[in-house]
Q: What sequence folds into this?
């Protein structure tokens, strides 16, 4: 099966789909003046949009890696996550503190999902 890429740029593609599995690039907020709640909401909105473009959604998440710039933001990020995630379909997830490429970014989320049948 072919690999289908979307939003292809010089450095990365925002999504790649292979054999019914969707891989998203790390998603960050564009408005980095927001606090952790605002940045997390924006990032999850990007994920919703990108998954929707490839016939998937948050109920089909297979795994999620969340990178936060400082663990002080953990509870704020989780409050937004808990409102967003599809209850009953919560994915395997890891959350780690990491130095992100842009110091104004507080959170980056990487997702793997299945396409809807």
A:
């Amino acid at each position: 099966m072919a690999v289908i890429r979307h939003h292809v740029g010089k450095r990365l593609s925002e999504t790649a789909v292979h054999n019914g599995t969707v891989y998203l690039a790390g998603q960050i907020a564009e408005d980095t003046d927001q606090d952790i709640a605002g940045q997390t909401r924006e990032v999850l909105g990007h994920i919703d949009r990108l998954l929707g473009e490839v016939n998937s959604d948050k109920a089909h998440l297979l795994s999620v890696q969340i990178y936060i710039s400082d663990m002080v933001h953990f509870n704020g990020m989780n409050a937004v996550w808990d409102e967003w995630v599809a209850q009953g379909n919560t994915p395997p997830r890891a959350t780690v503190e990491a130095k992100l490429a842009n110091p104004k970014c507080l959170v980056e989320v990487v997702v793997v999902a299945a396409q809807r049948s």
User: Anything to note?
Assistant: The chain is about 25% helix and 30% strand. The first strand starts at residue 4 and ends at 8. The helical segments are 36-53, 74-84.
